[in-house]
Amino acid sequence: MATSKKPEAPPPGAPAWMATFGDLMSLLLTFFILIVSFSSMQESKFQEAVGSLQGALGVLKALPTVPIHEEILRREGRQDQAREISERVQELEEAFASIPEAEVVEVSRTERGLSIRIEAQALFDLGRAELRPEALPILDKIAGALAGLPHPVRIEGHTDNVPLTSGRFPSNWELSATRAAAVLRHMEGRGVDSRRLSAVGYGEWRPVVENDTDEHRQQNRRVEIFMEPPPRAQPARLGEHL
What we know:
With 242 residues, this protein is α+β, with helices and mostly antiparallel strands.
């Protein structure tokens, strides 16, 4: 009787395809570790890493977009901006503590950045747009705090709703705009970069309270200075420029 042939033993070691599969898994793991590590990298380093990845994987013409990095950069940027705004608020409050006239100045944080509100009576005589001498220490303190920063600075002029009787300014539009420009010129002369400055007059049309009493009209006559965060460059997305 013929004996059955014994099955051949498999060759020692893992099959050849396992080595290729293991290499592929290692490369994928390394790739996703790089993506996670981008969350703590600066944008310049991120660009360098993308270039290195392109050189190492030159067979790839494009890679999928990874929006998680953009969101992380945006969140970190907001935290840095909020911290800087808080520091500037505290710095200005301490600087104004030594100025008696500073009681007419209100410094606060807003959703857009730093807000400095100054009652117009501290800066100008009624119906006029020339800065009073008493206003200069206040504006000098503000200019000193903002001069070395990259942030845009917008100066707004506001009035009450009482019509003007003098012939110099046809309406509250011109008065508010001229007052804002006067503050801008002073800050420019104290070292604030002209390219960061802008001025606008809103006349009587953006009151903080109703113009129904003398006290309320005094509150509405004001100059507001806003320091906003600089526009952030759009972070690079993985796959761009490949």
